[in-house]
Specification:
Elements lengths: L1 H4 L20 H16 L3 E6 L5 H11 L5 E7 L5 H11 L9 H17 L3 E7 L6 H10 L10 E7 L3 H5 L5 H4 L2 E7 L4 H13 L8 E2 L1 H11 L3 H18 L3 E2 L1 H19 L13 H36 L1
Parallel strand pairs: 1-4, 1-5, 2-3, 3-4, 6-7
Helix pairs in contact: 4-5, 4-6, 9-10, 10-11, 10-12, 11-12
Length: 324
């Protein structure tokens, strides 16, 4: 809806990760540097953690889009809570293997032969595991065992583990000491600073053909940062709703007032979802001002309908009397 109103070529603040919207803030640039360093090392594990919505998946997708596919075969896995054997099957499927053996021993042999065949073509296999905090200790141990594969004293297989902050607690398990020794670098992806927050908003808009409409004054950017803490997904959620509000209320320049209003609406909605209604007949009013305007519009429409019905009745009465 608002894309047409603001003459945009697409929605700039979608929540779905898209590498085309990747913004290289200082923290994302450092995280990318760690991943690139890992590729140059050709072995071991790289661990990237970050809060929910920090841009981890977008970072991974950006890396995958930039990797030379002629020399690195990449598989991107988004994990759920699977055990070790199931993870091996997920990995095999991610690399395009079909008809995988049911028993674990045969499955490991199949994977090893696959990695060796890839290396013979001068290609390395890179596995990127997203949502790694969901992996069990047994699944992580299977990843470590895969890292033991070698062909001609070269590791044909490498893993990047990306997850939420609690993944660091998982890695601290005494049962994963050997895996920790294989980790060559770790980085925690934090939020953007206030200046980068404003640059991020403009960057996303420019990717969809923004022509300075709508505009954001300095107070609006400050308010966006204040309400989101510089976390990309929070910024997307707030700005997406802000543009929708601007479309409905014919706003072409945003200040802190509009941002604070929309942020309050979002907070109220979250509270409504998290708190069950006190009675079955209760009605939650999220935005009294907007509700008042809606009621006024309904009242005007009802008045128009009544007047129209009255005119039709008068015309019919006149027609019937004239016919008699």
């Amino acid at each position: 809806m608002y894309t047409q109103f603001y003459r945009l070529q697409g929605e700039p603040f979608l929540l779905t990760p898209d590498h085309r919207f990747y913004f290289e803030s200082s923290v994302h640039a450092q995280a990318m540097a760690y991943l690139t360093y890992g590729i140059s090392r050709r072995e071991g594990f790289i661990v990237i953690t970050g809060e929910i919505g920090a841009g981890k998946t977008t970072l991974v997708k950006r890396l995958c889009s930039a990797i030379d596919a002629q020399h690195i075969l990449t598989a991107h896995v988004v994990t759920t809570q699977v055990d070790g054997a199931d993870l091996l099957r997920v990995i095999g499927a991610a690399f395009g293997l079909k008809d995988l053996p049911a028993d674990k021993g045969s499955l490991l042999v199949r994977l090893q032969r696959f990695f060796e065949s890839v290396l013979q073509r001068n290609i390395r296999a890179l596995l990127i595991v997203d949502e790694a905090q969901n992996l069990s200790v047994s699944a992580l141990e299977e990843l470590r065992m895969l890292s033991n594969f070698q062909a001609h004293n070269v590791a044909p297989f490498q893993s990047f583990l990306v997850g939420q902050p609690q993944f660091r607690s998982v890695l601290s398990s005494p049962d994963l000491e050997q895996l920790r020794q294989r980790v060559i670098a770790t980085y925690h992806l934090g939020p953007m600073n206030q200046q980068e927050c404003g640059e991020y908003v403009i960057h996303r808009l420019q990717r969809v053909g923004w022509r300075q409409d709508p505009s954001f004054d300095a107070s609006a950017i400050d308010a966006i940062y204040s309400h989101t803490g510089g976390v990309p997904r929070r910024i997307n959620t707030l700005c997406n709703r802000l543009l929708l509000f601007g479309c409905l209320d014919d706003v072409h320049q945003f200040s802190s007032g509009e941002v604070n209003k929309i942020a309050a609406d979002l907070d109220a909605e979250v509270s409504t979802i998290s708190e069950p209604p006190k009675t079955t007949n209760s009605v939650v009013v999220r935005n009294p001002d907007r509700l008042d305007r809606l009621e006024q519009r309904v009242a005007r429409q009802e008045a128009i309908i009544k007047r129209t019905a009255g005119l039709i009745h008068d015309l019919l009465t006149f027609h019937n009397s004239d016919s008699e």
